[in-house]
Write a structure and sequence with these properties.
By secondary structure, the chain is mainly alpha-helical. The chain contains 15 helices and no strands. Helix 6 runs antiparallel to helix 12. It is globular, with a radius of gyration of 21 Å.
Amino acid sequence: MITVLSRHRSAIVFSTLTVMSIIVGLACIFIGSVDIPFDEVVNSLIGKGTQKPTWDYIIHESRIPLTITAALAGAALAISGLLMQTTFQNPLAGPSILGVSTGASMGVAILTLGAGGLLQGIFGNHIGEYVTNIVGALLGAGIIIAILIGFSSVIRNTLMLLIIGILISYLSSSTISLLNFFSSAEEVKSYVVWGLGSYSGVTTQQLPLFALSTIIALLWSLTLSKPLNALLLGERYVQNMGYNIRNLRNSLLTISGVLTAIVTAFCGPIGFLGLIVPHVARLMLNSSNHVILIPATILCGAFISLLCTLLSVLPSSIGVIPINAITPIIGVPIILYVILNRKRINYFN
């Protein structure tokens, strides 16, 4: 039950996250590795154009897609992490910890390196690479999720399932290393560039598909607040509410895997966001009620992802810093805080 005080707190949190996300999102459009005057950016956004055609191109073909991609990817990874943490009742669960991100990367590696660019040969280099990333990430993440679902039908201990996920992650990483070792220099270069993780790789042509698939999955997650709250109260309570505990966990893992696979396919592996954002949302709300926690996590994920994107382009004189070099700087202190205060903070009640 949401009290008047918690409603007031939630309203403040939602308003703050929304305003901050808009401010940082606009900053990502106005600030970049190429210095464009403020008034020229404004003119471009309102349709008047800029003095240099290249500035218009940078704003509309690079910065705006980058900003939208960063917001959606951050929200998707954050929800993926939240679903996993609730499913496993463990604050350190996440798509990267459980091997889903690594599995998606392994799928891309198998098609890029192991298949010798088969899809590139069928569809052409540009479209083939695009199709390879999507198909590979979905297949890789799907295999890992299927393995986790298979083990969950036999093993009910969530800690053991978490350990199995970590082992699968190591096995996937080993497979990727072997594929890199036996592949040509050109194939390895193509995979390494993708593996760095970047929001800038999503073009204006790819953005509609990425946005549509991500938004559908996020809307799907919004319908899960009641079963997620029931899961916090124990398996017996879940069954009393009419849910099948095994089917519920399988559904949560599937949605989490789909969200991770979509982001990994389009942006490459992005670390830490799925792990840290749910904790930030819980701490801001001081609640584990998923009715408010899910939308707060979506907003918080978008904000932190946009903030990392802004920080990556601030030192414009030396180029753009990889996003995965920024996320640990923000993520590690948060995880240390969670570990040190786990007994004092009640995350799953």
